[in-house]
Amino acid sequence: MSLRSEICARLLLPLIVTLLTVLAVFKLSGTDLHFAKYCAESTLVYAAVLLFPFIIRTALWGIFQFIVALQMCSIVSTSIYIVPLTVMNLSSHNAIGVKAQIWLAFIFAIVFFPSFFAIFSTKNVKVKKNIYMAAGSVVGVLMITLAFTQNSVLKNTKHLAKAVLHDVYFVPKQNAAIREQYRKPAVVSQSQLETAGADYFSPDTPIKNVIVIFVEGFSAEVVDYKNHSSRNLTPTYDQLYKNSLAFDHYYNHTYATYRGLRGQLYSLWQYKAGFYPDVGNQGFGQMDHEKIHKLTDSGLVSVPEILNQHHFNTYFLSNELRTGNMTSYLKTFAFTRVYGADDLGWTGDPPRSDKFAFQSLKQVLTKYKSDKPFFIGMYTAGTHHGVDSPDLTYGDGSNSYYNKFHNLDHWLGDFIAWFQRSPYYDNTLLVITSDHGVVIPTPEYRRSFHQKTEHSNFEIPLILYGKMVKPQIVDAKGTTSISLAPTLLDVLGIRKTEQYFLGCSLFETQCDERSSRLMHHFAAGTDSFRISANERGKYIISPEKEDAEFQKIYRFTN
């Protein structure tokens, strides 16, 4: 081989190696990305790096080959170049499995190392100054053109870097600035409970502990007392409305469960729901646990987090197993402990029954030995859409809605009877509400409860029960469950702490203008409704265009 041929071979070796390895990857993946474009791209990049001294040449070629190797791994695994979501989910790499990780490491190695080390064959190649100037100008123009060429590695990497920088740095910074606009120095400015608390609670029986029961998909119209029915479907609720501090015209502010639980315990709206059947695994109930924690890390403050600072033990009883998405999601609320159903003895498939839910609550209370006050939340799932009662039935058992609501009512009554005999009755406030109203009022549901519209009935129960409570019905005047978090803290006398609650306490006498307006809104994703009273005093739920403020709120909630 002549000297000239040997120099040419050394010069072309790195380019030939990278073209062969990338061609092998393209063939292996069956991608429709154009290999010819990569040939042109790599040739131009190689020509450009040859114009530099050897050390700089090696560094630039190494960087390019590193980028190419990463992009080839993406092509093998997804058939496309790397997208921003891939970068954002790098912490969840274990989800693809060990074999897949080893395979991608192998692809990276065969693309990167041969091409990178081949550049050392050009160590003695030097470019004359006049050639450097002329060739550099041509190559520079071509490189700029290539950076805007579709399906090129450089263009994709440029967009990727821009998107990741935007999502990782600029968006969180902007969202944090928006969030600070909603910071409140106090939970309550002025409360009726400070001046007229004895009208609602006995001053001789202070509240030490709180239990909140979030019943799945339960509208107020299900209750016989509210529905003016004599069917004896909900005798427990009927008695509670008579023997408790119960709120009338109180509405849910969002749906479904993932939005409802976080929304009520943080006093916020969040955009993302639990499940999306049509757009892939994007809901909190579908994504991996690390992503759940990442998306809920918003810097906001929950009721349990505030109570932890006031020396409470805070617990939640999940309807799912300890490894379930709901349980993982609830752990982001800052509870001292979240119990999975299997932690308390459930051995069946999730979700656990309402009977077992109330048995679990008894179990946790019976075993509680600390002198510290506690806050316990529990979500029951037995009244979920499509579920029939696994235990008790109503009448001949032919109506699944009657069955499941009657079953819930029975086990709630069983728990209340136990609660009244327990030592907790003297110092514990029992709060009974819902995660949201009945979201899907089917024809059977509408017939069963005489609902005239096809829209969800947003009115839900909010019942405060305990020895210290003075029974009465209080008109909530169309306010929503966005007020639950500040109301709970107000009742406990925790009023002067910073937070980002969007609602006001139901006992607040000086609610700010923004919260007063927001507390009459319902929002779930792009759905938006306004709750208002007509001239006859009847509350109307009216669809409306999405309030621009919700776009800001969604930005900083997740």
Summarize the topology.
Layout: H1 3-29, H2 35-50, H3 54-78, H4 84-88, H5 98-118, H6 129-146, H7 153-180, H8 192-196, E1 209-215, H9 224-227, H10 235-243, E2 245-248, H11 257-266, H12 289-295, H13 303-309, E3 313-317, H14 325-331, E4 337-339, H15 354-367, E5 374-380, H16 400-421, E6 428-434, H17 443-449, E7 463-465, E8 472-475, H18 484-491, H19 513-518, E9 521-524, E10 527-533, E11 539-543, H20 548-557
Parallel strand pairs: 1-5, 1-6, 2-8, 3-4, 3-5
Antiparallel strand pairs: 2-7, 6-7, 9-10, 10-11
Helix pairs in contact: 1-2, 1-3, 1-5, 2-3, 2-6, 3-5, 7-20, 15-16
Regions with little confidence, pLDDT below 50 for 5+ residues: none
Looking at CATH, the homologous superfamily of the largest domain is Alkaline Phosphatase, subunit A
Output the structural class: alpha/beta
Total helix count? 20
Radius of gyration: 31 Å
CATH architecture of the largest domain: 3-Layer(aba) Sandwich
CATH fold-type name of the largest domain: Alkaline Phosphatase, subunit A
Count of strand segments: 11
State the major sheet.
8 strands, mixed
What does the overall shape look like? elongated
Count the domains: 2
User: How helical, in percent, are the residues?
Assistant: 40-55%
Pfam family, one: Sulfatase
Protein name: Sulfatase N-terminal domain-containing protein
Membrane topology: Multi-pass membrane protein
Organism: Mesosutterella multiformis
